[in-house]
Amino acid sequence: MTKLLIQGHHSLRGEVELSGDQQTIMAIQAASLLSTHGTVIIDNVPATANVVAMNQLLQSLNVVIEFDRHQQILKMDATRHIEPVKISGQELLAAGAILARCRHVQLVDNGVNPEYQQTMIRIGEFLSQMGATMTTANEMIDITADHLIGQKIDLQNDTLATTLTLMMAATMAQGITVLNNPYDHPAVIELAKVLNKMGARVHGAGTKVLRIQGVTFLHSTDYYALDDQEEASVCLIIGALTAGDVLVRGARQVHLQPLIDHLEQMGNTVIIQRNGIRVIGTRLQLPIDIQPEISRFTGSYTQIALLALQMVAQGTSTISNFSKSELDVLGCAVADRYKQLKYEDRQLVIHGPLKQYPKVVTTNSPMTGLLALLDALVADQVTMINPAEVAGGSFVHLIDRLIELGAKIELSFE
Q1: CATH code (residue 257)
Q2: What is the pLDDT of residues 247-297, one digit of tens each?
Q3: Are 327 and 388 members of one domain?
Q4: Can you name the residues that pair with 344 across neighbouring β-strands?
Q5: What angle do CA 143, 148, 151 make, to 5 degrees?
Q6: 232 with 220, same domain?
Q7: Which three-class secondary structure string do you get for 137-167?
Q8: Cα(167)–Cα(181) distance, integer angstroms
Q9: In total, how many domains does the chain have?
């Protein structure tokens, strides 16, 4: 088993090139199910675990997949008869497309993440509002609909997956669907662009109100994937965390403004450039609370990276809406021997900076691996993380990019 040995407390400097945005790509993978004519083609597709898993889901639905990992080009042909299958976890964002195409979808609680269970329930409730029939049994929601009818739906405090799946369902619904307060994420804007290229009528992407006029037919299209703005977020946080100087090429201010504001409030310098965003970090991070508004603008990996940053701040800060799954990640990656972390009523209070980090961490998920990796970059010690494949599993070539920025990372094959 491969392990990482990391000598921390080094400032990272240099430039980072981003991969294609995973959330956007996964949404478009799901949307390819709506195309009954031609092949949907996506360029700039990284071979991440999430993208590969979505490909496998599509293949199980009888979609023909061609994925050139070297050229990063993905082709999806959903023109054959599609057979519905049970979906769970991150696959839930495909629920709307599967229901629209097959008139039947089954959502299953995989027991891995309580947030997925809540997302599953909310998707079922919203699709029921649009005319679907929902039955629940044995931790599974069975949804059927001969057709869906456009409705006005409020998505305040709902997940990204909920917004994306309702967008896809609404494209084939009768009448107009109005989605108020959709999740604010680049994937929503990009999915709307792609759906419109396929023949849909989606208006208002990037605003507080999405209006979707249902159509009866969608066709193929092609798309060059937006650079991964969550990866950009994590790389900017790494620059701040290590008191480094990092330029993230392809990072876009329009998608990252809440994070930029937070980094500046903590004492970092953020420079908007034509080709990306540059962050110059400081060793004296200020303790600024993370409000729910920031969490709504960021993905899970960004929230974990922000947690690592808060733990080096010089004083007490609070993270609101801190989920049980995030708490489990924290418990796996951090040994709080000095009782500097307190969790109560979905709030995590951090009395920073953290005095001690574990020297050996065994990771069980990319989320745990990312937190352990970022903590190791900060700690003035050698940290061993095991296994290396999971530790670097959040983004393609993450470990290679850290080494290029000057991180002291070695692989051990003992």
Answers
A1: 3.65.10.10
A2: 999 999 988 999 999 999 999 999 999 999 999 999 999 999 987 767 666
A3: yes
A4: 347
A5: 110
A6: no
A7: ECCEEEEECCCCECCEEECCCCCHHHHHHHH
A8: 13
A9: 2
